[in-house]
Design goal:
This protein is mainly α. It has one domain: Rossmann fold (3-Layer(aba) Sandwich), CATH 3.40.50.1820. It is 46% helix and 11% strand. It has a 3-stranded parallel sheet, sandwiched between helices. Strand 2, helix 5 and strand 3 form a beta-alpha-beta unit. Helix 7 packs antiparallel against helix 8. It is globular. The termini are far apart.
Length: 151
């Protein structure tokens, strides 16, 4: 949802988007049957891609490329709910249109829930430092230091 929201807002309103374990391509996510039961996309969209009347294209971040805002895409390589290949495929497509705006963080050994838990080691050791780099590059080292908790 963060990626979709970033596309709906101006760059000023969305200066940086963090997409944590995103199903960024809804059609492909449906085909790959993401989630434990394999029906997460269908339940979210309340329809199948072939019956949607264009709703998947309106809602799927992959259909809204290129990105016009900085985005950090974080996911685990041990995610049983969301195939890492789905996320890396989106990252490749997003980078091809906006190479300076997209940063991909694939976290070794992390599952789906480690990515969305702000107190997990995946979050603290991988996501926070990557956010700090992006913030420091775009704004200031003071802002990046504040994120990292340094004086």
């Amino acid at each position: 949802m963060a990626l979709w929201a970033g596309h709906q807002l101006s760059e000023r309103a969305a200066p940086l988007v963090l997409a944590a374990a995103p199903v960024a391509d809804l059609v492909e996510g449906h085909r790959m049957q993401v989630s434990d039961e394999g029906d997460a996309v269908e339940l979210y969209m309340k329809c199948l891609p072939e019956d949607d009347g264009g709703e998947y294209a309106k809602a799927s971040p992959a259909a809204l490329l290129p990105v016009t805002f900085p985005v950090l895409v974080a996911y685990g390589d041990d995610d049983a709910d969301l195939p890492p290949a789905l996320v890396s495929g989106y990252c490749d497509s997003a980078r091809s249109g906006s190479p300076d705006l997209v940063r991909e963080v694939k976290i070794p050994g992390a599952d789906h829930f480690a990515i969305v838990n702000a107190s997990s080691s995946a979050w603290l050791e991988h996501i926070v430092p990557a956010l700090a780099v992006m913030i420091g590059a775009r704004w200031s080292s003071d802002a990046a230091g504040a994120l990292l908790g340094s004086p």
